[in-house]
Amino acid sequence: MKYQFPENFWWGSAASGPQTEGAADVDGRKPSIWDYWYEIEPGRFFNGVGPKNTSNFYYQYKEDIALMKETGHNSFRTSIQWSRLIPDGIGEVNPKAVEFYNNVIDEMLKQGVEPFMNLYHFDMPLSMQEKGGFESREVIEAYVTFAETCFKLFGDRVKYWFTFNEPIVPVEAGYLYDMHYPNVVDFKRAAQVAFGTTLAHAKAVKAYHALNLDGKIGIILNLTPSYPRSQNPADLRAAHIADLFFNRSFLDPVTRGEFPSDLVEILRERDFLPNYEPEDLEIIKENTVDILGVNYYQPRRVKAKENMPHPDAPFMPEHLFDNYEMPFRKMNPYRGWEIYEQAIYDIAINLRDNYGNIPFFISENGMGVEGEERYRNSDGFIEDTYRIEFIESHLKWLHKAIAEGANCHGYHLWTFMDCWSWANAYKNRYGFVEVNLDENYKRTVKASGKWFKTLTSQNGF
Ligand code: BGP
């Protein structure tokens, strides 16, 4: 075997509650912003498919966890839906939700699949959005109470906790680029939401550590390295600025306890600094993470700005750099994302050299493909060799980083089984396991799922 991974490496996949559970208005759950947005603007979702039923995990979790075992998982991440556990955001805990999450956790442990639990995957309860989402102190406190409730209910068995998945996504998609509800386009408000999320995160970390449970807590960040077009100082500066906005805005405060000073300067000059109390900065400083989850899909390529933005256009990070399309880049045409495997190595080395070699794992990586049914073979399963190649080529670079001292503890694919993906709904499929929506959510393991079993049983390839 050429690529052997460290002992006890976490092999598995990731998903989230809102994208897989379905049962949106069952057993006391109340709407999140996704249910509401779909109700008022169904046309914003691919093929008009909303979040109500997603992949039926609420009813099929036993079968699904058995398939995790069958495909060689030793770990799996999902999330607890705030809108299921505390349906009004604040107040009563829903006993049906406690029962469901207990069942899932216990079943995973029974099958030898370590549960990794995330607390927020873009799914703000509607009642909390109405109070201002993470612009509101009340909502920040409600989130911390929700997190603490989860630690107390499930922390005896769940040893790996994550406060947020890709916290920058609701900021940029919901408050800058009109991709998610509430479809606000306002940089100052985006900055306030980013700050509020960071504070909610730090307070949840503090609450977890105060309980002295035997486990670790972290956050999951989507890190997209910024590669400059050239070594021209203007291109280098542009890449540095993109890195500040999209990576270091969260990476620095959660690991080092401080926002990058040059990012603060960019915001101060434009009067975009969020409101905060001096003690907020203390809380962020003192409550850094034990572990980091890294989601990596695509690199960002950047060049110096070519034209002045229109003076009336609302401020965007792209007013300070241009995105750059490298000629002959390798693309995933379905998702429109560049495939650049070396970035996974560059991220790992950056964490090693500039972030104290913090323990991390790849918490999402994967390839979304449209129309996968065309790859079904005569045995009735999808022959997704492109996915196997995608994973292998990323793992080679990850292996190299580990050999050079990067502190990486695992690799989770996005995702276990095909799931609903926000505005893209079921357009691109990412799973080891096919979910057939026309045949009552029938699950069929793809070639990649079978291959993963072999990979994980050998701990390498
Ligand atoms: C990540 C999210 C996941 C999932 C994935 C694929 O950013 O954490 O929730 O959605 O991207 O997304 P898409 O279907 O848009 O390609």
UniProtKB/TrEMBL annotation:
GO terms for biological process: carbohydrate catabolic process. Keywords: Glycosidase, Hydrolase. Gene3D superfamilies: Glycosidases. The active site is at residue 364. PROSITE patterns: GLYCOSYL_HYDROL_F1_1. The keyword Heme does not apply. One of its GO terms (cellular component) is cytosol. One of its GO terms (molecular function) is beta-glucosidase activity. Pfam families: Glyco_hydro_1 (PF00232). The keyword Ubl conjugation does not apply. InterPro entries: GH, Glyco_hydro_1, Glyco_hydro_1_AS. Belongs to the glycosyl hydrolase 1 family. This is Glycosyl hydrolase family protein. The lineage of its organism: Bacteria, Bacillati, Bacillota, Bacilli, Bacillales.
